[in-house]
Amino acid sequence: MAGDLHWLRGDCHVHSRRSHGGELTPEELVGAARAAGLDFIAVTEHNLDAAGDPWSRLAGDGLLVIPGQEVVTETGHWLALGLAPGHVADWRYGVRDDLIDRPVAEVQRAGGLCVVAHPHAPYPAGTFMYPFDGFDAVEVWNGQWSSDLPWNADNEAALAEWGRGLAIGVHRHRWTPAIGNSDVHLAGQIGTPQTVVHAADLTQHAVLAALRAGRCWIAGSAAIQLTLVATAGPSEAGIGEHLPAAGGEPVTVEVHVSGVPSGTVSLHTDRGRSHQEALPPAGAGTATWSTTDRPTFVRVEVRHPTGHMAALTNPVILT
């Protein structure tokens, strides 16, 4: 990976008291984000503009606050990240109206990022009924409904749906990255999970560009660390990057993980789960896999001994 990039941790789905069910003030949210060691948050109130005060006043000193919106429609929610002041994306439609493409395109034309939110949320209108096509990312891990152990059947379903579409997306050169967020409404939720991005600097433009490119992975907590590097001959690539190699040249994938005692590291390709190794009780270890049977991509899942997710990555593309 390029040496001038930085790994930054953030939460792109954050609510204050202005949203239904939110219990925290902006000051409390920003304090919690700083305490959790986050570098950035995206404020996504329900169908409200989150730009300007108090967020601009509370940002700085190493914390980037990205203005956004959770667009709550009749048949699913999506996140609009990086909105300009006063820009509220239209939410007054359902899947039968065939109108969602217009507000999504408006956000993207203005430089914003559009994210499918909690596509299998277990409440009326929470399940995402629109196609993922046209969106910049999918929230495959949402922590709101299980803050004590933020991985549940709804996240498992979202991951499976995203994973099934990844192979054809990579083949067509328009795959959709995965991200994970807390969807914080209550104290103790922020940063569980969090998205770790490889960005040029701590600016809105750089963070959104890294998310859009898939140069990111998802961690269940700040205690979990992960690196993924694939090599072929003299070339190497990391998460969200492309690895060029001649036909038949072996590809070696190396994954370093810490913070997951007795966990399991599995490597997934367009052929499904292709390799698996156990982590030691101390929680830090390395998994290595080599193949000459060239898959189109490789991505990583790290799970606790219970089977619940600890971390997952976007793919390295093996072109």
Automatic annotation (TrEMBL):
Pfam families: PHP (PF02811), PHP_C (PF13263). Residues 265-290 are annotated as: Disordered. Residues 10-75 form the Polymerase/histidinol phosphatase N-terminal domain. CDD domains: PHP_HisPPase. This is Polymerase/histidinol phosphatase N-terminal domain-containing protein. The lineage of its organism: Bacteria, Bacillati, Actinomycetota, Actinomycetes, Micromonosporales.
